[in-house]
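Q: A reviewer asked whether we had any structural model of the full assembly, not just the individual parts. We don't, so I'm hoping you can provide one. Inputs are below.
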Amino acid sequence: MKSKFINAFKDVLREQIMDKNTVHLDGLGQFEVVHKKQTQKKYENGRIAMMPPADVVEFKSQIRKTDEN
Amino acid sequence: MKINKEKLVELLVEKTEMEKAEIESQLNELIKRITSAAERGKALEIKGFGLFYFDENGDLKFDPADELKTEVNFKYAGMEPVELKPPRDTSKEDSGEPVSDDDIFGIEDELIAEEESKGEINFDEFNHDKSDDSDDEDDNPFASLLEDAASSIEDKDEKEVKKTGTAPNVSSTKKSAQKEPKKNASSAKKKPKSTGQKDPVMMVVFILLGVVVLAGGYFIINDYLNAPEQSANANMQVQTEEPPAVAEQDLTEVEPEAEDTVEDPEPVEESAEDETPDIPTYGLYGDIIDAGNNGYTIVLHSLRSESHANEIAGELKDDGYRSMVNGRTVDGRAVFRVSVGQFPSISDAQAEAAELPAPYNEQNFIQRIRN
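A: Here is a predicted structure for the entire assembly that you could use as a starting point for your response.
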């Protein structure tokens, strides 16, 4: 596999993800950016903290190990 | 906007200038390598992008690389959890002054009952408590004071009760009166009293109110003084709890990385990329340097017109900035972003962005430089 292709692949996917575009690859899955709202978190010691919002990359798999693609 | 496989192939062809058939075969081979490596229990990492692996349930998972996480979440970078409700430290209250809350509020309840009865107090009741019930004496530290006042007016009080006839059994059967204090209180309400009998009682009332106010003030001031320490301790605890979470993420990613060095198709090229940034090619001013295009830049304008973007970039360049124009597709529409500077990290870019003249110091965002 050519390194030129690998570099281009990660650059293109990164650019599309950064632009909040959903990338769907047949046979693999789907990449998308999901916004997580701020949430309250309760620690084991009883303290409560407000967790900040975040934009995260989520991957929805299209295959399972048992399915063998 | 959704990018499917065909659109991705087009973008890759545009990016690499390779044949479409070759791109498709390379892409299929990459997908095959990801799945086959994962099925063999190994993780495959594309450096700078992320890690593919199968989890315990047999689902293919993807962990984005730290660079990608930071780029995607740059708007909220640096935001820390904020503690909302620090719990009260009850141990300090227990170790405070030996003031019994029960005594205080028990007396206060009596005083409230007295005030409700419009200042009319059955001193017989206090006498009975003093003489016959040692437990009540312990509960009321001011019973001895009341005893003196009550003894001087006891005879007169009994006569007045007999005159009214509303509580004939109170003075004659003192023990039954002790067992039923509520009845005595109700009967006391009906007894006529002279205003002269209130003076010692009112003094006791004022003293008790003073004690209650002082005790309340003590607790309020004590809580106020301890509040900053509690919030400071709380903030420290939140901050100290954060690093382990990050450390755990690092660990989960480090272990597969060792496997990836076998699977990664381009380890040599990555190391070559890492060696090039030794030259000081980053900065806000001067000319664009190709070696600095692997970093970040400060976007100042995002325009629909490419000519207008180039015009603004030219003006910025005349002012001495390293300016550039990058085209992007956002929601299916082409935009042209005018940016300045080349920086090795997001934090460096943010630091320089804060020093830009208004309004650029507040109206900007950081993005990775793309060719």
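A: Points you may want to mention in the reply: The longest strand of chain A covers residues 29-36. Chain A touches chain B through 56 residues (CB under 8 Å).
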